[in-house]
Amino acid sequence: MSDWQDKIPQAARDYLTGRRLDEVECIVADIAGVARGKAMPASKFQFQDRFFLPNSIFLQTITGEWTDNPMGAFTEPDMILVPDFSTATAAPWTNDWTLQIIHDVEDQQGNPVPIAPRNVLKRVLSLYEAEGWQPIVAPEMEFFLVARNIDPNQPIIPPMGRSGRRAAAKQAYSMSAVDEYGKVIDDIYDFAELQGFEIDGILQEGGAGQVEINLAHGNPVELADQIFYFKRLIREAALRHDCFATFMAKPIEGEPGSAMHIHQSVIDMKTGENIFSDPDGGESEAFLHAIAGLQNHLPAVIALLAPYVNSYRRYVPDFAAPINLEWGRDNRTTGLRVPISGPSARRIENRLAGMDCNPYLGLAASLACAYIGLKEKKMPKPECLGDAYMSAEDVPVNLGDALDLLADNAAVRDVLGPEFCTVYEAVKRNEYKEFLQVISPWEREHLLLNV
Description:
The chain is an alpha+beta fold. Helix content is 32%, strand content 18%. Strands 7, 8, 9, 10, 11, 12, 13 and 14 form an eight-stranded mixed β-sheet that branches.
């Protein structure tokens, strides 16, 4: 075994036991959370300690177009990719023996590239660390299994289940509904085990073919890495069984959208105690300050939590998604929910993020707002004790409005990094402009002959 293979996690070493490693995929997450990089023979990888990619990978839109670099000339200088061997994991769906390794991104002077999403999350965590705090997160992942769709002009429909019927809606928590596509779920479990990932639970959500996977709580970078990997492994599991897995926020008309709920708390690094709880077990002022930070600053990061035009189709009443930033204890109608827990597990559940967001940026955005709240020490609005859908909407209704709020919030831009925010805004405004050039079926149906 090569020296570098001694540094990789046990699950990856177990995967290679008795086998010869064929290929290594050197990857980073771009702005959209898409894996970019290069694959190379393992025999070549072992003789290199760094790799190169142009910085333009962070200027590419989801459609593949290129955004002009708002920070200067578009010269595409190379960035240095340094392998983080702690992220090495199997790619068990491949025909040969392959490992994936996430790389850190540095400039040619060895400084973290500020527009790389993984570095944005690390930047936020460094601010917590400077205060003696360690954020803990537990993400929930929702997604749809859908029938293969090779024509974008056709609507998405649910997959065919083992009964010969298409997956049905309104079957939340139904075990028989999950069994309809049990072979896909089995492969998800098998892939996750081979990759060394812990699944806390899998359940049927409210949409037709909609599944939720819960992950155990832990370090935000490690969990963002897992979600990044999970999206790929889930897609691969679905393809094995003649269907697609989609993390699009609202793929099927009339069905709920898919969220990435973020449970977050903060640990005092000296004592190991949850700062959201007082010594007597009650709610601390820091807990309320964090809620206030989320209420006051989440609107400015909705562009990261809801990054596409489709994302805003989730924010409608009575479809299990929030429409405002009310908070409440054990209240799923609010954007900010406080789950039932003991003092050590006291946390805030941010229900605003869509599953289409880049996991590094989604976690960074939510943690940034709570951090600002902890520093500002303001109090939140009164708790919502009823149906939050009866309250006024106070989240942006489209991507353009969300980007305007991001541009205007100096505190958020300072925490996430001004250079990152400038580049992100440029990429997303380019995508929004492209979308506005597309004429939709609704427009052709209702406007062509009637106006």
